[in-house]
Amino acid sequence: MNAITDAKPIMAQHLARIGMIIPAVNRACEPQFNRYAPPTLGVHIMRARIAGKWSRPIVELADEITRATQMLAECGPDLMVYNCTASSMKEGPSGERRILDIMQQAAAIEAVSTSALVAEALHTLKIKSVVLISPYTSNDDIVNYLRAIGVSVVRDVALQLPAIEFANVSPQRWCEIAVENDRLDADGIFLSCAATTQIEAVASIEQALNKPVVNSNQAVLWGCLMRLKSRLGAIPAIPKLGRLMQTLAS
After folding, report:
1. Which of these, 66, 58, 127, lies nearest to 98 by C-alpha position?
2. CB atoms closer than 10 angstroms to residue 175
3. What is the pLDDT of residue 233?
4. 8-116+218-249: CATH, from 3.40.50.720, 3.40.50.12500, 3.40.50.10540, 3.50.50.60
5. Which residues 6+ apart lie within 8 Å of 67 measured at CB?
6. Residue 1 has what pLDDT?
7. Cα torsion 77, 61, 145, 181: sign
8. pLDDT tens track for 131-188
9. Which segments in the chain show pLDDT lower than 50?
10. Same fold, 8-116+218-249 and 125-215
11. Which residues contact 65 (CB under 8 A, 6 or more apart)?
12. Cα–Cα distance between 249 and 57 in angstroms, integer?
């Protein structure tokens, strides 16, 4: 038996592709999307200096976003994703639209952002009030963005970590933090940040609190699958990612 010729070609399985721009410091996206995305979805990553110590106003990020978009577009994705919660929420819904305008001008490919997909996920699950949990120094920008889309924050928890340490918090610890800070007046939990292990805690938190949970990378994967369903065909169940993924079948 020839191991090379008998191996099933992975590339041939891809029925659709996403191109994802992530902060250069992000260590979580690639392993998580490789683990949870269905094998028919190709995931292609481009790093850019858009967050952490490189965080700055969107007008100053334009050249960086343009370069990243143009390079990523060369692999022919069906959908482009700007996957950084803090950056895409920083200047509110209008700022998020400016980011997508920059991407659209750089490559004529449909583009979406973490912030917009989180908003869609929260609305799909009918969540109007949340406990907000993040690794950030401050959640003020996130609170303001959520308020602008009609979601109130009844408890605000920011761990105040440096960006390089975001991925060091374990899924178990995220679950503990959610349980410790839950509020009766919260419809759900929002775990904000695409550079963490939060996605691995979603199912455990939902089980512990009997409330829906939205996380940045979970919402991005869900939003991409929703948009590409016609290309991907039947999408296998992803039970480890909570109630949000169950809506794919509807």
Report:
1. 58
2. 24
3. 84
4. 3.40.50.12500
5. 48
6. 47
7. positive
8. 999 999 999 999 999 999 999 999 999 999 999 999 999 999 999 999 999 999 999 9
9. 1, 3-6, 8
10. yes
11. 21, 48, 50, 82, 99, 102, 103, 106
12. 39
Other Cβ atoms within 10 Å of 179 Cβ, number: 13
The beta-strand segments (E) located in the chain are 16-23, 41-48, 79-82, 111-113, 129-134, 152-158, 188-191, 213-215
Query: From CA 69, how far away is CA 102, in angstroms rounded?
Result: 9
Domain residue spans in the chain? Answer: 8-116+218-249, 125-215
| CA-wise closest residue to 155 among 184, 125, 118, 197 | 184
CATH of region 125-215: 3.40.50.1860
Taking each continuous run of H as one helix and of E as one strand, the counts in the chain are 11, 8
Q: Which amino acid is at 40?
A: T
**Which pair of tokens denotes residue 138?**
């401050």
Would residue 111 be called left, alpha or beta, if left means φ above 0 and alpha means ψ between -120 and 50 degrees? Answer: beta
Q: Are 209 and 189 in contact (CB under 8 A)?
A: yes
Tokens 């390089």 — which residue? 164
The number of residues making up the chain comes to 250
Do the bridges between strand 129-134 and strand 152-158 make them parallel or antiparallel, or are there none, so unpaired?
Answer: parallel
